[in-house]
Amino acid sequence: MANKETILNVDVSNETYDSLIRQLFHHIKEKQQAFIVAVNPEKIMKAEQNPELRDLINTADYQIPDGVGVLLASKLKGGQITNRITGIDLMMEIIREAAKQEKRIFLYGAKPGVAEAAKAQLIQDYPNLQVAGVLHGYTEANEYIIDTINQSQADILFVAMGSPRQEEWIRKNQSRLHVSVFQGVGGSFDVIAGNTKRAPAWTRKLGLEWLYRLIVEPWRWKRQLVLPTFLLKVIRKRNKN
């Protein structure tokens, strides 16, 4: 079972990439299901005001700290979370291990053509990878989606619809899917396909991806105000306890 801390009533897993991979592939081996949700300050703030979103996050098996603000919050409250686990990097770690262990992945979501392009790039990078199937996110027949994923015999399902829609879809349909590992991955298919450029590696390493995004997308400045508000709430709650 994952080690967790609670930040503003939202669970956050305290794991490393290695420990997550070990646990996730143990779930596959034992034919158990595991649901991964990425958590950042913006999502925690929304969850504080939205009990349904908070329940959605907290009922997942792994809530990965995808945001340097979550690490700062843990430190402020005397916690132990020091490893940032980004959604796309965890996805790639899972894919690398899936190629080694001959496990099957399925890509569901994004605009028409994007999942196919991501598949082509992944197979180029990992020739041994078994991509069981792809479906774009504009397929409306849910029964068809479920049947297609189940018939593919996929072990791992990546859903790219944006959050929290992708997580809501996973929770709603998880019990009917014969898949072990579920992860909502947002715009990761577009990144893999080459349609979207990630921040430079050095900014990600230093936890400055937010600054890069602000520079290239200055209209995001209002969203960036969430971080100081979030940290202030964490401090206030710590001082009350």
UniProtKB/TrEMBL annotation:
Under catalytic activity, the entry for this protein gives:
UDP-N-acetyl-alpha-D-mannosamine + N-acetyl-alpha-D-glucosaminyl-di-trans,octa-cis-undecaprenyl diphosphate = N-acetyl-beta-D-mannosaminyl-(1->4)-N-acetyl-alpha-D-glucosaminyl di-trans,octa-cis-undecaprenyl diphosphate + UDP + H(+)
Q: Which UniProt keywords apply?
A: Cell wall biogenesis/degradation, Glycosyltransferase, Teichoic acid biosynthesis, Transferase
Task: For this entry, list what GO says about its biological process.
Answer: cell wall organization; teichoic acid biosynthetic process
Q: What is its EC number?
A: 2.4.1.187
Pfam families, alphabetized: Glyco_tran_WecG
Keyword Glycosyltransferase present in the record's keywords: the answer is yes
One molecular function GO term is: N-acetylglucosaminyldiphosphoundecaprenol N-acetyl-beta-D-mannosaminyltransferase activity
Top-level EC class, please? transferase
Q: In which pathway does it act?
A: Cell wall biogenesis; teichoic acid biosynthesis
In terms of InterPro entries, this protein maps to:
TagA_TarA, WecG_TagA_CpsF
Similarity-based family: Belongs to the glycosyltransferase 26 family. TagA/TarA subfamily.
Physiological role: Catalyzes the conversion of GlcNAc-PP-undecaprenol into ManNAc-GlcNAc-PP-undecaprenol, the first committed lipid intermediate in the de novo synthesis of teichoic acid.
Protein name, per record: N-acetylglucosaminyldiphosphoundecaprenol N-acetyl-beta-D-mannosaminyltransferase
